[in-house]
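Protein modeling request. Please complete all fields; requests missing the sequence field cannot be processed.
Requester role: graduate student
Desired output: 3D structure, token encoding
Chains: 1
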Amino acid sequence: MDLSIPFLLLVQGINTLLNWSLVLLVHQSHLGLTSSFMGTFCASLTLVDTLFTVVELTIYRLQDFSLFGVRFTTQHICLLVQIAGFVYSTLQWPVLFAAGLDHYGSFPVGSKQTCRNLKLNYAACAVVLWAVALLYVFLGSGCHPVVEDSPHLLLDHCLTQRNWTSSHISFALLMTVACIRLYARMMVSKDKPKEEANRHPVQKSQNCDHSRLHILDQALITFTRTWAAFLILMVVILVWQIDVPSHLMMNVPWLSFLNSFLISVSLCTHYQKLNAYKILTFTDGICQWNFAFTDG
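Delivered output (296 residues):
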């Protein structure tokens, strides 16, 4: 992708402001910002993006300057953009995996305050992921940033990396949501005719299955209703194959979307434990999760 430098700076600035807006919104929720690994990583991403934006704007404004014996020119903007793209692409799957483990192991989500040691563990894990991603990009991935061979004063555009990783995650997530919703609907319609015929020996087992399907359906309904516009945007990007630079797709809205999906998956995997609650209500800062259970 070949994009102009002013356009990249403008979009990066908007992206940073959007990150701060969502981080502050989640921070105002009763969960707090550091109550989960994903929240902690979103905070770190916002700080990194802010630093990245300030450095880019400084280089673009001064054009040619030296700092601590190192000369910086407009070419360094393109280098930073490409390096950021490689690092953010590398981080996507590890962050998704770490957040999934966190939600799975800290059930029920949002039911209790996060202790200080756990918050420190989240912060340490985020730092380790950033460090490993940087080491991998510079030492192990074999990536080679490419800059136009032209004088820096005449350089007005940058080559950027296409966002393949987010596209793969988007496709896998959309297919998962569609298949689960289809499965839940099919099972509900399939079980309705059997409710009258099978009531005695297998009633307890059927109640368990219905409880699982109810939680599965309600979790996905909450997720899809809250993120409907984002899901439509994902479909449009995939169908029309719209190119989005990797360093712009990795942002707090995208991670918040993945976080809500991981919570819905966690709720479905812990459906048996959910039955211990008559009412369970919590928020991840974006979705409002509400479940009501009846005995029998």
